[in-house]
């Protein structure tokens, strides 16, 4: 099982936007530059984030992306769901109803133990991702930044943000 | 993100083997018949279960699959890992080192917060699957079986098991 790479790009894009000063926005091309990824590739993930109300984009020369709500109100589960969808990774095919001695549909109103167990595990996965907000990620990233890189980041933000 | 269908087939195959009387085995073709799935398709998943020491197969006319260890010692995590592998669903590409103001490799010895959070969520997913053994699945399945189907299942097992 592999998660789409887009989740990683989207999470980093949101973390960058969370670091923007209030009232500023970043054009999609500058977010792509920051992450070192082709702008067209990132654009589709930014659109998915926009559809999920995680980012908003302004129009015109002052346009650019910013977060749609406070960083504390955006979790990794929101971002993963925006990119990968909310469908469960385990898709039950009602195997128990198949074969020469399969169960009747009537006896299968309750999902089988295998499906319920996989769905419960996914619930635990989502619950863990729901615990992590962009504030947590920013705080964690900040701990690894020395004074020199902080200056470089500040200068880049100053030149890139609208 | 979608889990391989093979995980579902493998889980059901293991549950069938867990229901076998002691000392009996089921040929792969009969497991496939029971599940209503092409034998060739199931064979590759049975091989994966065999490589993971979850099932063993006997040779010759009395050959057939049986569990490699007690049903209480086989979990859904074992089965999912056998089919999907143990690699994490989230594969970190060190995005933070990219772009014009990327971090140095030296500053990135510790995995970034995004990767750690996704890996922690996968750990929670695996922990939940590790809680579910074949004994749990059998007990759950047994609760949904009425007397008529119990007889049909018993007759099928009697004819199919070696």
- At CATH's second level, what is the architecture of chain A? Orthogonal Bundle
Strand order of the largest sheet of chain A: 1-2
The average pLDDT of chain A is 92
Largest interface between protein chains, with number of residues from each side: A-B, 63 and 64 residues
How much beta of chain A, percentage-wise?
Answer: under 5%
**C-alpha Rg of chain A (nearest Å):** 21 Å
Oligomer: homodimer
* Distinct helical segment count of chain A: 7
Shape call of chain A: elongated
Termini separation of chain A (Å)?
39 Å
Poorly predicted ranges of chain A (pLDDT <50, ≥5 residues)? Answer: none
CATH class of chain A: Mainly Alpha
SSE run of chain A: HHHEEHHHH
CATH superfamily label of chain A: Winged helix-like DNA-binding domain superfamily/Winged helix DNA-binding domain
Summing up helix and strand content along with how strands pair, one would put the structural category of chain A as mainly alpha
Give the biggest beta sheet of chain A: 2 strands, antiparallel
CATH topology of chain A: Arc Repressor Mutant, subunit A
Number of strand elements of chain A? 2
- How many domains comprise the coordinates of chain A? 1
Helix content of chain A: 40-55%
